[in-house]
Write a structure and sequence with these properties.
10% helix, mainly beta, 147 residues, 5-stranded mixed beta sheet
Length: 147
């Protein structure tokens, strides 16, 4: 089955989200920090007068802090709707919109619930994400209280 996705990077790795869940792609401007927020919540961004929580995928996925090296500076946000709430996911770079075919299920040792599949291309591997599973329902409820 073919799926149209937005392909983005976190560090040197490539990930994809189905295009139908991505409401908008925006350059990151000012991010307001939130006191006592979980470490993966980078803060709030203002999107046309609405405060949207911004999730740092580097921290959420445990692949290091995005602020450590200059090439990992989270310059874009993918605005999605997760369980009825708008959420921004901070990513380093948006590469392309593409139709992916031959999406294989994750290998048995990959147990992260947010990984929906793997696409093995001749020159790269792309990990397809399930945005609704990146955050658990109690975390979504906590984010909605923050905004």
């Amino acid at each position: 089955m073919a799926v149209q996705v937005v392909i983005f990077t976190l560090g040197q790795e490539e990930y994809a989200m189905p295009i139908e869940v991505v409401r908008e792609i925006t350059c990151l401007g000012e991010v307001r920090t939130i006191p006592q927020a979980p470490a993966y919540v980078r803060g709030l961004i203002n999107l046309r007068g609405k405060a949207i929580p911004l999730i740092d995928l580097h921290v959420r996925f445990g692949i290091g802090d995005s602020s450590v090296s200059p090439e990992n500076q989270n310059t874009f946000a993918l605005i999605t709707e997760v369980h009825g709430n708008q959420v921004g996911f901070a990513v380093d770079q948006v590469r392309e919109v593409r139709i992916l075919e031959n999406i294989a299920p994750p290998p048995p040792l990959v147990t992260a619930p947010f990984i929906g599949g793997i696409v093995n291309l001749p020159d790269r591997i792309i990990i397809q994400l399930i945005p609704e599973q990146i955050l658990e329902s109690n975390e979504i409820q906590g984010l909605s209280r923050l905004t």
